[in-house]
Target: Pyrroline-5-carboxylate reductase
Amino acid sequence: MTTTAVLGAGKIGEALLSGLLQSGRSPDDLLFTERYPERSAELTKRYGVRGVDVPTAAGLADVLVVAVKPQDIEPLLDELAAVLRPGTLIVSLCAGLPTALFERRLPEGVPVVRVMPNTPMVVGEAMSAISGGRHARPEHLALAEAMLAAVGKVVRVPEAQQDAVTALSGSGPAYFFFLVEAMIDAGILLGLPRAVAADLIIQSAVGSAAMLRDSGEHPVALREAVTSPAGTTISAIVELEKHGVRAALIAAIEAARDRSVQLGKAHEK
Ligand SMILES: NC(=O)c1ccc[n+]([C@@H]2O[C@H](COP(=O)([O-])OP(=O)(O)OC[C@H]3O[C@@H](n4cnc5c(N)ncnc54)[C@H](OP(=O)(O)O)[C@@H]3O)[C@@H](O)[C@H]2O)c1
Model:
């Protein structure tokens, strides 16, 4: 059994700890680091997992999951470089940070797996894409994959595709929340109470997502099945097309990819 330490138990780090415990990992095999003692005590009370400092985490854990904000990475790398044990696997959840950054700043030969998760991790429904760095062997990727499978689905992608992944599934939940928000507004415009409109749309989103995941059908086939000739749905679809919603989504995701590339450049040197 491996010991895993989450460095930075914020939103994503806490979600991972919680998911690992729910999947049956013992609290004794898990550790975390946090900056503030109050937050650390609160997490220990909630999960029974020990909060430690970075040198202790590096001394005890076989897997170090880096879950600090990208802008907090530099001091953490300085701290880690001094205490990292050979063979420790680094799993980075930090958006936009290349594996090469860890390889350059940490002792030679460090295995690094880069992950782009998303916030549905808090309900065990994350979509995580993983890429191995120069020294990540198949067993390192398998270890990272098994860990993330406890909190959702995992795919492997070449690291060059991580900017596209960030734009699609990393930011993806925000696009769905945006659509749901707009549809609830439409319900209010049509005279429904907000709570009723929210129930109708959220359950429709959950049901549609389950059909997309479980039916094996293409989204076009599922949409056609609710689009009858001269019916209500086709009237709505015509308006969506007139307003360029498809083109807007494609352009939005392209803009997110471009921003991800730009943010990544800050860490090239
Ligand atoms: N949220 C998302 O949608 C999402 C999606 C994909 C990837 N990610 C990635 O996940 C990472 C974490 O994001 P988040 O939203 O969970 O951020 P967050 O809530 O701010 O969590 C980061 C945590 O790390 C702590 N921290 C910072 N430096 C530390 C250090 N040196 N030692 C120990 N703890 C330290 C922070 O403490 P303080 O509160 O004191 O700063 C905070 O509790 C980011 O790199 C982000 O790119 C997030």
Observations:
- Residues 7-8, 10-13, 33-36, 67-70, 72, 75-76, 93-95, 117-119, 170 surround NAP (CB under 6 Å).
- Residues 194-214 form the longest helix (21 residues).
- Strands lie at 4-7, 30-33, 50-51, 63-66, 89-92, 112-116, 126-132, 152-156.
- DSSP finds twelve helices and eight strands in the chain.
